[in-house]
Amino acid sequence: MNKAIIHNRFILFVGLALMLFQSCTNQPEKKSISGNEESNVNQSEISKTDFLEVPDLAKPWVYYWWLKGNVSKELITRDLEEMKDKGIGGFLLFDSRGYHDGYEDGIVPVPLKIKYEFMSPGWREMVKHAMTEANRLGLKMSINLANTGGSLRGPWDMKDMGPKQLIWTEAQIKGPRKVSVKLTNSPDQKYFKDVALIAVEVAKNTGEGEEISLENLNRNWKEVTTPKSNGPNAGKVIALNDKITNGELHWDVPVGSWKILRLGYHVI
Prior knowledge:
With 268 residues, this protein is an alpha+beta fold. Helix content is 22%, strand content 29%. The strands form two sheets. Strands 4, 5, 6, 7, 8 and 9 form a six-stranded antiparallel sheet that branches.
């Protein structure tokens, strides 16, 4: 990664940390939920009125999912009025599509034969209406500006700026020996980039396991998940990035059994 980018990110991190510390050390005077200043507020001092008439700042938020752009102004108004009536304070709007998109498959019920495409003029008009109605009703509103719910992306080709997934593969060898292997990018991994290459010594008391070919470092990619509870214990860990020259790993393997872990990411 470019050193200037790393430096800028470090400065930003330090700045955010200082802001967080400042906010924690300079607390405002305590107030009751209704806004009246008090020196020491506790649960026993919350009034019956405060409890029965919850102020907007203390009301819960909800997710508001638009499935496949299947909305209308009438439905939006009805939904938001119901939220207000049920004591909701705000909502986070999600546009969700890309899952069972056909109207005729019967998997997802479709109340209207409408399908506003993400960021189309009609879709933006619906968002504007939601904002107007939220303001009228005194509801707070935020929006996840993406078209697949949890994945932050649009319907267009975002190239290497799309959402990414961390993946890994491994080899296992025994030392001492010298190894060399060319590290290639899999054509199946879109916009693949290496993240790290590390060697982990397998502790003797956990079983050394079978050797896995160095060629496996270029295939059999897996998603990063929670490790097994009965997995082998790690001993020494060695970073191998500085052992790579022109895309080829050259390493003098120490005595012992070693797992070589290659981590990278690709666009999903």
